[in-house]
Backbone:
């Protein structure tokens, strides 16, 4: 009798939650901090002023990302909790109706009505709320709201991204700050775009083009604003 080999499949969706927060945080850290520093350097070419702006941008941006992500994901969690509470009430008061509802879902997915009913009965006997949460509400462990994890990932990723243009500005003379910040930021965006595309199973070229084009545009606009107001 042939031996059966069990293996654990890994899917892109397994990492979609943290990947979204990390990529958004890192890209925002690079683009917003680099743009801020380029704009300040265009208006006031003193190295100290540019570095202070970069540090302030890093700290403020990381805190803003954490707060925004926490509030956003907490709101998602509140909505999920409300849906689950309502579903539990319906299971307590109308179990037959809920059984019919779950059976209809499985029929809609292609099961024979008798088999769909049997599957629904067995799943509801095992964990009725989990069955309805998964198959009626579309709530899975992979996409459940985790506010603290999302906030921490966003803040950390932002800080790492923002450190790239900040470090480059600290290592060059004042006259070379704009060139150094733009160059290192574009390289960092290429790297994060490629990593994100790789982790998400998408085209590297598309991922790189998407982030670098928007990053370059943002730095160009803030440079122009700095020149205008500096003049």
Residues:
């Amino acid at each position: 009798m042939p031996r059966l080999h069990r293996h654990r499949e890994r899917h892109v969706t397994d990492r979609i939650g943290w990947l979204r927060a990390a990529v958004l945080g890192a890209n925002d850290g690079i683009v917003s901090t680099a743009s801020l520093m380029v704009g300040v350097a265009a208006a006031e070419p003193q190295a100290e002023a540019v570095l202070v702006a970069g540090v302030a941008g890093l700290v403020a941006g990381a805190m803003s990302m954490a707060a925004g992500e926490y509030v956003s994901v907490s709101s998602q969690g509140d909505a999920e909790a409300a849906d689950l509470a309502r579903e539990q009430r319906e299971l307590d008061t109308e179990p037959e109706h809920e059984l019919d509802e779950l059976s209809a879902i499985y029929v809609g997915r292609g099961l024979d009505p008798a088999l769909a009913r049997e599957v629904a009965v067995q799943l509801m006997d095992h964990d009725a709320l989990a069955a309805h949460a998964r198959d009626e509400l579309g709530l899975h462990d992979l996409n459940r709201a985790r506010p603290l994890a999302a906030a921490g990932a966003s803040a950390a990723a932002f800080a790492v991204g923002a450190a790239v243009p900040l470090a480059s500005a600290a290592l060059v003379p004042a006259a070379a700050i704009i060139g150094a910040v733009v160059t290192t930021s574009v390289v960092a965006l290429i790297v994060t775009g490629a990593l994100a595309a790789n982790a998400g199973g998408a085209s590297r070229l598309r991922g790189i083009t998407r982030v670098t084009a928007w990053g370059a545009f943002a730095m160009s606009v803030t440079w122009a604003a700095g020149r205008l107001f500096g003049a």
Remarks:
- The chain has one domain: 15-230.
